[in-house]
Amino acid sequence: MKKTIAMLPGDGIGKEVMQGAQEVLTVIAEQFGHEFIFTSGLIGGSAIDQRGIPLPPETLELCRNADALMLGAVGGPKWDGEPPENRPERGLLALRKELGLYANIRPVKAYECLTDHSPFKKSVLDGVDFVIVRELTGGLYFGKPSERSGKGGAESAVDTLFYTKEEVRRILTAAFEMAASRRNKVTSVDKANVLESSRMWRETAEEVKAGYPDVELEHMLVDNAAMQLIKNPAQFDVLVTENMFGDILSDEASVLTGSLGMLPSSSLSLNGLHLYEPVHGSAPDIAGENKANPLAMILSAAMMLRTSFGMEEEANAVERAVQLVLDAGKRTGDLAFENDHPLTTDEMIAEIKEGL
Ligand code: ATP
Ligand code: MG
Q1: Model ipTM?
Q2: Domain final residue pick, 261, 296, 312
Q3: Which ligand number lies closest to the CA of residue 283?
Q4: What is the pTM of this model?
Q5: pLDDT by residue (tens digit) across 272-290?
Q6: CATH number, domain containing residue 74
Q7: Ligand 1 atom with the shortest distance to the CA of 278
Q8: CA atoms of 223 and 201, how far apart (whole Å)
Q9: 321: domain range?
């Protein structure tokens, strides 16, 4: 198959880990007889440096012409002085909005060989393998009004949690589709005892469920979900929730696996052009030091192969290589203990390619 992949490395360790994804994809293309064309665009701080804005129109154009998008990370202290509307993060928010990337999918899997790195007991981590589906383009982060008022904006402030029924339906549908291909269980997280938007969410979940007789639907209040995620995380298969609840719960869940450097994600649109990125950020504290763990980015590439291109075998090959290398005890610094000799980013990339 011939596929064009837009690579947006962004800032900080984004550049270093993107290199790993590209090298791994190049080997996969050779092994399986595909042709991957990599195009590259500026986003975030590096776009501000070179073009004055965090999402230049040519980057958007490049994305629209691709079959799938890969993003490293955006941001860093260098751009702290930029006005709010020109921050690196704005580039990513604008990209999500422009491309209709409404569903953020974050698999959370506890690797058996990494459980020593988790602050949780082995018995809690046993069988942890779930997916968080977070709504990404609505809710409190985008609702209007969002403003301050009173003397110079000092006296009151408002944000608005707004959803249309259709927005809620499409994210719940994404969750049921996902559950149908997994263990057939959806946990819908809301605050229906307090919020009107949550009551609409709950009703919509029941309506969508009617189309999936084999999938079990459970409703859970967000405060309880926050507790259950650390008390008994193995109970979950697919957890679906609105934008801000999802933001908070997915960071909470990431702690289960031991390192941010292990977690991939995808952001899905309705038109088939999806984006894949690691859950971690630009990690300014280690940027440029060849220390970053490239596995979250490489596992994001595997998600792309499977979801965007239907390349199941190819995706499995990448995931197998990651498992193989971890099982052999090879680790980057974020997963190494004090006395170990951690691999550099480049060395880890080489190990994965070797394992393919
Ligand atoms: P940003 O604002 O871009 O999110 P941040 O300062 O919040 O930047 P993160 O990237 O979120 O930094 O990382 C949080 C911590 O986890 C940092 O100490 C970072 O070094 C570490 N970390 C994140 N990703 C990785 C990785 N891939 N490999 C190793 N360490 C990582
Ligand atoms: Mg961060």
Answers
A1: 0.95
A2: 261
A3: 1
A4: 0.92
A5: 999 999 999 999 999 999 9
A6: 3.40.718.10
A7: 27
A8: 16
A9: 1-99+273-356
